[in-house]
């Protein structure tokens, strides 16, 4: 049974019709509002998170290419407008957020599969809801599923001021780890401290790697969650403890390392891809997040906000901007 009809027949949506620079993100106002079938949910979007991967895909440099025209955006928050005939978990009017969409989130409406839709608690705004999806699910996968981090271990979040970094700091702190975080601006460093880091370091400062070594009294850190491995991986191998793990979350190119650096301490380099998360992984992760939202430790930090029509500006800023201060979002 579908519940209700969509309010509008046409919507504004950003569309990419050819790969290229930010200017290929074109706002169109004559896109038909999609209709949900079977397990699909139609959501009227209030806000949508902007993720760096959407810039790589838009540029055409990413290995996985969508068919064109393509509307970016996985992480929306909004209100259920209509549901497909097999959907029982949601109804028209529910406040929700997503960890994936079918038709794209840089738009006024999107379709999502019901297993990637979650009720948004009343104590979180739509903007905060749009900052949960990719960043928090990636942070949890990196820290708990891949690094298998345990309470009392030390984690260094290398690039802690952005979407994934803040999420990782909050989760790691809640799970009992000692948390070190890096950022490149004073504002970013303060934000990282306010969101769970016991100690922060500036990754733009010469000699910061030695400061981290000194801070850990030569023992090193058990886990590194790495946002820019093409710059940092070689140093990371120096910073790990015996049996340490570096988790590759972000990478924008190649880097030379000496594999010997992994031998004496028997350390591991482990990649993470959120796209590999199974339905069971998502169920477990969401359960942990509801506990976090109830307890209050899961509190997304919204940074720069852009209206939908400035999506191209947002794509320029997320790569070239002066420094992250939480999650970048678009508002509708
Ligand atoms: P974001 O919000 O744009 O944040 C980028 C972060 O990288 C900021 O904390 C930034 O710090 C930091 N950074 C900049 N220069 C750095 C350096 N030299 N060393 C360490 N960190 C540095 O991006 P995000 O959403 O958190 O995503 C982070 C990365 O993970 C991106 O490359 C993204 O594509 C990737 N990612 C991968 C997966 C996956 O499944 N593997 C999923 C989600 C994201 P300042 O701005 O303070 O300098």
Protein described:
The chain has 332 residues and is α/β, with parallel strands linked by helices. It has nine helices and 15 strands. The chain has helices at 52-59, 126-129, 133-146, 163-174, 186-194, 208-215, 229-239, 279-295, 311-320, and strands at 10-16, 25-32, 40-49, 76-83, 95-98, 109-113, 117-119, 154-158, 178-183, 199-202, 221-226, 240-248, 268-271, 302-307, 327-331. Strands 3, 4, 5, 6, 7, 14 and 15 form a seven-stranded mixed beta sheet that branches. The protein has a six-stranded parallel beta sheet with strand order 10-9-8-11-12-13, sandwiched between helices. Strand 8, helix 4 and strand 9 form a beta-alpha-beta unit. Mean pLDDT is 97; it is low at 1-6. Bound molecules: NADP nicotinamide-adenine-dinucleotide phosphate. NADP nicotinamide-adenine-dinucleotide phosphate is lined by residues 51-53, 134-135, 138, 158-165, 182-185, 188, 203, 227-228, 231-232, 249-250, 272-274, 318, 323-324. NADP nicotinamide-adenine-dinucleotide phosphate binds next to helix 1, helix 3, helix 4, strand 9 and helix 7.
């Amino acid at each position: 049974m579908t519940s209700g009809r969509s309010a509008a027949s046409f919507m504004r949506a950003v569309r990419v019709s050819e790969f290229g620079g930010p200017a290929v993100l074109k706002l169109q106002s004559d896109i038909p509002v999609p209709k949900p079938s079977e397990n699909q949910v139609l959501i009227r979007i209030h806000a949508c998170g902007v993720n760096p991967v959407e810039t790589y895909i838009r540029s055409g440099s990413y290995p996985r290419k969508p068919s064109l025209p393509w509307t970016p955006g996985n992480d929306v928050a909004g209100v259920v407008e209509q549901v497909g005939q097999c959907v029982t978990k949601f109804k028209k009017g529910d406040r929700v957020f997503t960890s994936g969409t079918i038709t794209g989130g840089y738009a006024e409406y999107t379709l999502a599969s019901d297993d990637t839709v979650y009720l948004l608690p009343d104590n979180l705004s739509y903007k905060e809801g749009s900052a949960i999806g990719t960043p928090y699910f990636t942070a949890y996968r990196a820290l708990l599923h891949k690094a298998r981090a345990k309470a009392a271990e030390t984690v260094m979040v290398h690039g802690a001021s952005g979407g994934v970094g803040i999420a990782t700091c909050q989760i790691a702190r809640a799970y009992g780890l000692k948390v070190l975080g890096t950022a490149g601006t004073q504002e970013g460093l303060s934000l990282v401290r306010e969101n769970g880091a016991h100690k922060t370091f500036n990754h733009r400062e010469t000699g910061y790697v030695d400061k981290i070594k000194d801070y850990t009294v030569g023992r090193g850190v058990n886990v590194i969650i790495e946002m820019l491995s093409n710059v940092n991986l070689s140093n990371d191998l120096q910073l790990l403890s015996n049996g340490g793990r570096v988790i590759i979350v972000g990478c924008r190119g190649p880097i030379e390392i000496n594999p010997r650096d992994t031998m004496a301490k028997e350390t591991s380099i482990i990649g993470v891809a959120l796209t590999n998360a199974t339905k069971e992984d998502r169920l477990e992760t969401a359960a942990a997040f509801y506990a976090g939202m109830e307890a209050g430790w899961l509190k997304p930090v919204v940074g720069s906000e852009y209206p939908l029509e400035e999506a191209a500006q947002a794509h320029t800023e997320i790569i070239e901007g002066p420094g992250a201060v939480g999650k970048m979002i678009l508002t509708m």
